[in-house]
Design goal:
Helix content is 29%, strand content 22%. By secondary structure, the protein is an alpha+beta fold. The longest helix has 17 residues, at 209-225. The N and C termini lie far apart (70 Å). It binds oxalic acid and manganese (II) ion (MN).
């Protein structure tokens, strides 16, 4: 039975059902009773496996098809009406052509299946910043994941119905179809506020609230409406006086975003009373508040984190978040005690186990048991360091924005931009190197501006312009920084210890944001002096080593500038003149 009289919702659901032809339509009300019933059905069909009720209560294991284990950027499209609006970094097709192509694939795709209608909200539905959506799917796995990652059900419908425009919701359509790689499409239609995803069952492609909506569609909405949707974690640092100061940080994948979001401070900080609180680990929506500061909300309700490498040392808070009510995808199934395992969890791979494909697995044969992109979906509220502002409707005020990448030699441990415009330049030149071989050779540079390359729903040149315009409109803008935890020595080993010790760098950043810390000028921006970073209790890093981590190699940076020129060419006349000016300034500083 439909849960609403909202005509816009009813008409759209009816239209999608007429096309996909399911045997039944089920409205997801968000109740525990209904979710439990769905879990029961998914257990029966084998879609999920119940794990050890004592060790992992409320936890399940799911396996995707072997051809369907990650986001598929080459099959992800931004179908704006004009090709120019998608820009040079997105795949594009004419929307009418794409709709025609997809309609053929969706027609009858749910025959013999049940269609689930999931009303969802990004951020708490009562927040003035909430955006509503409906995801239609034929996958119970999707329903169960959306119940963790977003707020779902009746509560959302009521807020949508009571909103200024009850027809203003994102229309998300997902069908598993045959999980056929050749016909897999993840398509955003920004002007229609619509997302169509077909032939995948993997989270990043099918949990439409996440990358598809909260980044691609939302970045387009933010551009039109004067706010920002960013690929950023949000954290708060509480000082011994009990004051919490917040920052948001963008990193490309595989740079430790979830680890930083849940950082545990070094002993000397803990002793003094410092604490770190996680507001979000992946996405931030940023708006100008009535007080003239930039405020952030985490639009999500859960963590969809990479499992391998997560352990009690690297990220105890993430691991502890996954000990109940969690869905594991593509990890090892330990048959002895019906639990899960992944590479890097501990040094004891289970002897009696199935790998991520569900095959009998012997770790001794050298093969990986868990897929490198295996995941956990865990409620954020279970994180031991979750912020008490996690669900605050107004969000948290941001004092610093941090960009970062993986650079073996070029970028110093940390530097501060001279002002907002320079900060936008710093974000626009973000890059990561494919990890260098043990020889220390520098890898290939992949530019990923603001870590948004796969997630910007419109022309990236216009996105840079939007950042510049926002800077002019924020009366009290956050300061902008860049960090690099990944400088290497001659043997290719990381010099900076990273993890909890990154707190020492965040400490300087927050100090700068509140005009409490010193800096010196350099060709690339403001740098701390080595003495400005607190090294107490970190014996393995000498002042001299720290100085080397903060050094600027002008020759490398001149080469960097040449690479930036080449990258900027892509954007043609959409590239804001201000960024060319900043590049020219950098070159002059290096001359
Ligand atoms: C993610 C990603 O899954 O950035 O968060 O790919
Ligand atoms: Mn991400």
């Amino acid at each position: 039975m439909a849960l609403t009289n909202n005509k816009a919702v009813l008409d759209w659901v009816e239209e999608m059902a007429a096309m996909t032809q399911p045997d039944a339509v089920v409205w997801v009300d968000g109740s525990e009773a209904q979710l439990d019933e769905l879990r029961g059905q998914a257990l029966k069909s084998g879609e999920i496996i119940a794990l050890n009720e004592e060790k992992l209560p409320g936890c399940f294991l799911h396996r995707t098809a072997v051809n369907d284990v990650a986001r598929v950027e080459h099959r992800t499209f931004i179908c704006s009406r004009r090709e120019e609006d998608a820009g040079p970094t997105n795949n594009w097709m004419d929307p009418q052509e794409m709709y025609a192509k997809l309609k053929r694939l969706y027609t009858g795709a749910m025959k013999g299946r049940t269609m689930y209608v999931i009303p969802f909200s990004m951020t708490v539905p009562e927040s003035p910043f909430a955006k509503f959506g409906i995801e239609i799917t034929d996958s119970i796995y999707v329903v169960l994941n959306m119940a963790i990652m977003t707020r779902i059900g009746l509560r959302v419908l009521r807020c949508l119905d009571a909103s200024k425009d009850p027809s203003d919701f994102t229309k998300g359509l997902h069908a598993k179809a045959e999980i056929d790689e050749e016909n897999r499409y993840i398509v955003q239609f920004p002007e229609d506020n619509a997302i169509w995803s077909i032939n995948s069952g993997y989270g990043g492609n099918v949990l439409l609230g996440k990358k598809c909506f909260a980044l691609r569609i939302a970045s387009h909405l933010g551009h039109n409406e004067g706010w920002m949707a960013e690929h950023m974690l949000i954290l708060g640092i509480e000082n011994p006086q009990g004051e919490v100061r917040y920052l948001a940080a963008a990193f490309p994948s595989a740079c430790g975003k979830t680890n930083l979001a849940m950082l545990i401070p070094p002993e000397i900080y803990k002793k003094k009373g410092y604490k770190v609180w996680c507001v979000g680990d992946d996405i931030a929506w940023l708006r100008i508040g009535p007080d003239g500061r930039l405020w952030a909300v985490n639009p999500e309700a859960g963590f969809f984190g990479v499992a391998p490498g997560t352990n009690m040392k690297s990220n105890p808070n993430a691991l502890l978040s996954t000990q109940k009510n969690t869905i594991f995808t593509n990890v090892v199934h330990n048959l002895d005690d019906n639990t899960v395992w992944w590479e890097g969890l501990d040094k004891n791979p289970p002897a009696n186990a199935l790998n991520w494909k569900g095959e009998k697995w012997d770790s001794a044969d050298g093969s990986k048991g868990a897929h490198p992109n295996s995941r956990f979906t865990a409620p954020a509220g279970q994180c031991p360091c979750i912020s008490d502002k996690f669900e605050a409707p107004e969000g948290v005020p941001i004092s610093a924005l941090v960009f970062g990448g993986r650079r073996a030699k070029t970028a110093p441990l940390v530097y501060q931009s001279r002002d907002w415009q320079h900060g936008v330049f710093v974000g626009s030149i973000m890059a990561s190197e494919t990890t260098a071989a043990a020889s220390g050779a520098v890898g290939v540079v992949r530019r990923d501006p603001m870590a948004m390359l796969p997630f910007c729903g419109y022309h990236m040149g216009d996105y840079f312009r939007h950042w510049l315009e926002m800077g002019k409109r924020i009366p009290k803008p956050p300061k902008i920084f860049n960090v690099n935890w990944f400088r290497t020595d001659e043997d290719g080993g990381f010099i900076w210890p990273g993890f909890g010790d990154n707190m020492r760098v965040l400490d300087w950043i927050i100090g700068r944001a509140f005009d409490e810390a010193d800096a010196v000028e350099s060709p690339v921006g403001y740098l701390p002096k080595a003495e400005d970073i607190n090294l107490d209790g970190l014996d393995k890093i000498s002042l001299e080593t720290l100085r080397s981590l903060l050094s600027i190699d002008k020759e490398l940076w001149r080469e960097e500038a040449r690479g930036i020129h080449e990258f900027y060419e892509k954007f043609g006349d959409h590239l804001p003149r201000e960024l060319r000016d900043e590049l020219a300034k950098l070159e002059a500083n290096l001359a």
